[in-house]
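Feature request disguised as a bug: please show the residue count (585) next to Sensor histidine kinase in the output. Example input:
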Amino acid sequence: MIPANKASKQPRFIPFGYKLMITYMVFIIIPVIAIGYFSHSMYEDSIRVQTRSNIQGTLLQMKDNIEYKLSDVERISNMLYEDYSLITQLRIYEKGWDTYERTTKIVRPKFSIAVNATSLNIAMYIFLANESFPEIYHGNFLQERPDLLERNYNLYHLSRIEDKVWHRNFPAEQFGETMSWQRVERDEDFGRISLLRRLVDSQNPLDLNEIGFMRFSVRIDELFQGLDYSKIGEGSALVIEDEYGRVLYQSGVLPEGEAHGEESSHLYLTIQESVGQSWAMTAYVPMTVMEQDSAKVRMFILLICMLCLIVFTFAGMFISRYFSIRMNKIVYVLNAFREGELHKRMGYRGKDEFGQIAAALNEMGRDIDHLIEQVYMTQIEKKEAELESLQAQINPHFLYNTLSSISRLAQFGEIEKLQRMVLDLAKFYRLSLNEGRTVIPIRSELEQVQAYMNIQTTKFGDAVSIFYDIDPSIIKYDTIKLILQPFIENALEHAWFGNSIHITVSGKLHGEDIIFKIIDDGTGMSLDKIKQIFDPVEGLNTGYGIRNVNSRIQLHYGSKYGVSIGSRPGIGTTVQIVIPAWREK
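Example output, currently without the count:
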């Protein structure tokens, strides 16, 4: 038996396996049930939307087919309506041989061409106000048989229809637009419909005179041949109604008691499209078709959900404990350490094995972070020492040259120049020392350049000239000291030839950088010479001051900043210095 005091010291916590199963039950099984329910609801809505979209597309195809045939008949009417030569002949009221020739050689051929210029079986009736043209017709006017007149025409006088209601009520003429589809005369008996349109004399557009009337009778089953209810589903129906709600054509059968045009959302999905100018095409799709599909999907989703629940339940019982949330936390912290984010910590406070791992990882992160900080501070100190060393290497060289010049002035007794040079030298070193600071304001750097140039103009007089082009907005920023003077000194020592030399110092703000340029009109240098200057091996005895400034800038600001040189022999040299626009505290 285990002693009571030892048993009481053992940590008490819920085993990891139970924790994993409880989490699994909450975050896996419940979402599966919710997903199954919402999937079914969304699928039912999707079926409705998809069915409506598919039927809408089918109806648009049917609509295009019908409107194509309607426009084909209207095109035939336009052939006669817009034929100016035909209208001209119909205006001539002469009888005799001329009328016979016009009828047989001009008028009748145009009518024959028009009635046969389509694939539809059209029966055409022409009524002319000019009674000098003889009537030509087949059959009896009162007992017409349009089915026997297909692809042919009858020519009547307009007086035959002047008392007809459909002619008297025909809309007022608007040139090129007035036409109407109606069932007139015996159209309904023979399952037909007619396009009615005037023939007008357009010689005076403000006074359109009716010189005739046209009627193009078409079989309804031929006009609506593409209208088939089976294309949208069994049990469906398609109905075409005119502007007065009268049924022109129907494909399929609706149950008794279902009125056309009424919304029957409990039994049918109703979709409507306009056809032509004023007709309506309505599709009735029974809801039972969609409900059958919905029931199949409902059963399928239910089976899938049940299968997922069974599989997930058994899988959760045997999944390794190492795939727990705590293990993911450990992996996350380790990845953060690998990426350099050593401030990441684990907040797990349990007494089990994960608590011990978390404590060890947190302690390791603190130790590594502290070690890196120590190394970083050491590197900073080394970098500052390098900067001080480079700075110390510049000043003695300039001081030696200046003291040599002072010595020559004293030798020749030029006391005034000697005094100015000593004062400028003192000012230069006062600004250069700057209480031991490496970073100085740009204003002070420019004052150093000016003090240096005062010394040079004292030595050389008007042979040396300098021009300043400084953007006032850069004055407020800081720079490391002595980055301009070495290049001016280099130009005076190595680029000067002839009687004089001109130097330009510019400073501009470019985005988040400051760009200085020192431009001279001296001897210039070759590309190989420039490459040699920046090569630490080949340029060991050449361009020391240039490399010095470039190294100090990159040590302080980074490798993206520094010095670049552009030059052409015999033309001059441009030195560009780029530093960031910083104000250091």
